[in-house]
Design a protein that fits this description.
7-stranded mixed β-sheet; Rossmann fold; globular
Length: 572
Amino acid sequence: MLRTLLKNSRALKRMRRWYRARVGGYPDWGALLSGDRARFQSRLQSTKTGPKILIATSVGGHLPGATLESLLAAALTIRGAEAHVLLCDSFLPACLESLISWYPDPRRFVQYGPSKDLCKDCFSPADAMYRSLGLPVHRYSEFVTADELQEAERISSGLPISEMDRYRLDEIAVGEHAMAGALRFFARGNLDGEPFAEPIVRRYLNAALLTTFAVSRLMKKFRFDCAVFHHGIYVPQGLIGEVARREKVRVVNWNPAYRKKCFIFSHQDTYHHTLMNEPAASWEKMAWTPEKEAELMEYLKSRWQGTKDWIWFHEKPEEDPAAIAKELGVDFLRPCIGMLTNVFWDAQLHYPANAFPDMRDWVVRTIAYFSKRPELQLLVRVHPAEIRGTVPSRQPIVGEIRKVFPVLPKNIFLIPPESRVSTYAAMAKCNSVIIYGTKTGVELTSMGIPTIVAGEAWIRNKGITMDAASAEEYFKLLDRLPLDQPLDRAVIARARKYAYHFFFRRMIPIGSVAPAKGWPPYKVHLSGLDDLNPGRDAGLDLICEGILKGADFIYEPDRIGAGGRGDEGRRL
């Protein structure tokens, strides 16, 4: 018991030191405005009749979110919008910032939630940053009544745990987002065997209900034209989106993209949903040139080492096929089928097109299928983000596989997440590849590799992959393996056109942001207030047009040229 308490105490002290050190990571807008204070104040005054935009950062301690959203708030103010900010003021009993890695003894979180640890260093720095811009900051606690506090407690404490993920309040999927938030807290795809699962899920449900009440009242009071916030899922962001859509307030969600200095923005919903259902017309008619194809292929090759990205998972990956074959024991001279997993807990939302209830079921049933196809080798590459991602998984898929198959069939080969084996080099030796939710399908098809999709991968619905809408369809597709030939030229051309759209048009560069070491992984990078003016940063212009007028978040490099400012200036 004493050892557990000491371990918990040390972890919490580290957390507090880390959090306090992060205060310097916020953009110093006071320093930026020191020479332009009067000019910016004049802009602020002139926005009173402009469009009302809610910058719903909410979790101020989420530095990547607060950093970019403060930049958006400043840029929108320059363009005449009246920007408001929403922050949680230690009010929610659970949130996006809460992770079990902070709590070696989860009983502390069960009892107090984030209030005694995270909240103290989350709200105040973000509040000070936004107020230095002169923007109105709204607090969650201001918009929830005593009766609603009691109602949230009554529902979250009384609802059977088996009904929580399906619970809806006034047609809002409160339970789905609460469960997704709890799974993220535990870094698991399900909560089997977690002794404190129920009280923590109840905390997330309570927080989801309070968010729904607060945002509903806030939006009724101010009638915003648009709400802007990162991700669009989990707690509280998922509920902000649900309420905004109900109140007919436009929603803009965003997330950092793979390419350096780039971000993905989407209208009305999280990009997890919108990129799967994006109309093909948005990219099919794009002019296609040899120069674009060459640019794409150069970038895709750089993805093998991540040299042009700020999100990658391996330094110096092993790309030699002979070395890979020796390490794994696979025989690339025989038919080989690739299989790529994703992180089990990530974005656990409802996707109606999924052929399986979850990724674990897909993995286990696929291995069982191939155990009866000894003429084929199945090469299972476990996603490196299981151990190298921002939130490492506590439910490794290798462990889930071993529960069902203590001894793997001889034709099944696992590449664990820590392996240096290059995913691209290994999959390039396969006859075809099966995926669930990974984005790698965009690249595989551009390489000419036939791809079967069983889950919510973004390459689905593009007329490029073999998409299964049910388990029955999926196994019928597997029955066709191995395929006689790779993708034909027309499909490869279509795949590359979509890949260019995905990597170069949907990933919007912002010249006012620069990569940085540490956390957050980027900083606001300006030489002065004029850098926020229209015409100075093409990517920022496009994003603001999308927020203010609903314009498509599609960047056109061939029309804009290099796009955005260069890297001159100073970090704030």
